[in-house]
Prior knowledge:
The protein has a domain at 17-142: Winged helix-like DNA-binding domain superfamily/Winged helix DNA-binding domain (Arc Repressor Mutant, subunit A), CATH 1.10.10.10. Helix content is 59%, strand content 7%. The chain has 7 helices and 3 strands; from the N terminus they run H-H-H-E-H-H-E-E-H-H. It has helices at 8-19, 33-53, 59-70, 76-83, 87-99, 121-142, 147-164; strands spanning 74-75, 103-107, 115-119. A 3-stranded antiparallel sheet has the order 1-3-2. Helix 4 (76-83) packs across helix 5 (87-99). It is globular and about 55 Å long.
Amino acid sequence: MAKAKPSKKRAKALDAKALADPGYGKFLLDDSPFYLIARTSGRYAIDMQRILKSVGMDIPRWRALMVLREQDPSSVSEIAERTVIQLSTVTRVVQRLEKQGFVRLASRKTDGRKTDVSLTEDGRIAVQRVRECASRIYQLAFHDFSASEIETLNAFLRRAFANLNFSAAPAPTRAAGCPNH
């Protein structure tokens, strides 16, 4: 029995997937989701850093505050995991937030080895201020996206992030000479 030819739409999808692979001979950066994500993230970071600086904040502190807004208290290691920032860096970020009076630190009652970080009233005020700043960048970036497009984009990004979680997923096929993670 003869194999059916893929539809034009399917052939195009296969081509797009192949073209996005850095190992493919016709690979171009502009076809790479990672390049586009990094480029978008870089532009976002530049714009966010500028707007956050105007209110005495920076991106690492913004990210830690947003985690605490959703899960208060959180341990330093939980903040590091959620923000995808190294633990040593998050420790310094939390110390800066404590000096500013935005958070308070306390040993976790159920496990004294963990330090819980909680928002103070000044921290809640800072959260509101930086959310207003972040909203301006969000509106600029996504003003012409529909709610459905935002849902789809977020779903794709969550899936790609989960796929990259090497500790939880099976190891991908590795090319010779590439280190294991």
